Amino acid sequence: MSARLMTKTAAVAALCLLALPAMAHPGHGDSVGFLAGFAHPFTGIDHLLAMLGVGLWGGQQRRSLAQPATFVGMMLLGALAGMVGLTVPGLETGIAATVALAGLAIALALALPNWLGMLLVGMFALAHGNAHGQELPAASAACGFLLASAVLLWAGRCIGQVLAERLLRVAGVALTAAGVVLMGGA
What we know:
With 186 residues, this protein is an all-alpha fold.
């Protein structure tokens, strides 16, 4: 990937982050279409940080695309479960914990075997998908939040591949702290 493309990707990600305060949190009332689903991962700080964190960790490891693909696939399964009314006990605390754990993996530059990393991000994704599926129980919304999640994972991965290791570790510590704070509020 060229430096020019990575710069443009980072600029788009930064603009998306700047736009967050202007967006209403979707998924409530009648707004359950594709756009509401697409906006949802960008408007929930726990979802935003977890997906960027998983992407950063994958980029830091410089491995195959198996982890992000696993995340999206398992997120779909979690969403389908949420859409039919199955809930995960302690879901909000679990989602906040995914932020802290992704941050910890980055801060420690944790290099797990690929299958174990896929298992871990798959569990993260089930929780996030279940929450999205409960809040936005429409197929069009699911398509939206799956696409947005893939964008966030990809952006995090690109950033994780180009950011200096020291800065990645600092970002990991920040994510861990944010996750701990989110767990306190869950």
